[in-house]
Write a structure and sequence with these properties.
mainly beta; Hypothetical Cytosolic Protein, Chain: A; two-stranded antiparallel ribbon; 1 helix; about 5% helix; Small ribosomal subunit protein eS21; Ribosomal_eS21_sf
Length: about 80
């Protein structure tokens, strides 16, 4: 399992605050990365309360879980069809 630690640096900029997100190597990262529907390849919006995310475990040849999983995200519009 890989864990990423993000440092939140607050910068005072003309009487308002903005948040700068950087990872350990100093690269700038986004605060929010939207999910995409696995079936239609559309972006799943934050207000799509009908969307689901399913994690399916990967197994080896003997039928045991490997510790990895495959994630599928389905948007609400596809689920309604």
């Amino acid at each position: 399992m890989v864990l990423s630690v993000y440092n939140c640096n607050f910068v005072l900029d003309n009487s308002f605050r903005s948040q700068i997100m950087q990872n350990d190597s100093g690269d700038y990262v986004d605060l929010y990365v939207p999910r995409k529907c696995s079936a239609s390849n559309r972006i799943i919006f934050a207000k799509d309360y009908a969307s689901i995310q399913i994690n399916i475990a990967e197994i080896d040849d003997s039928g045991r879980m490997t510790g990895h999983n495959k994630t599928y995200a389905i948007c609400g519009e596809i689920r309604r069809k």
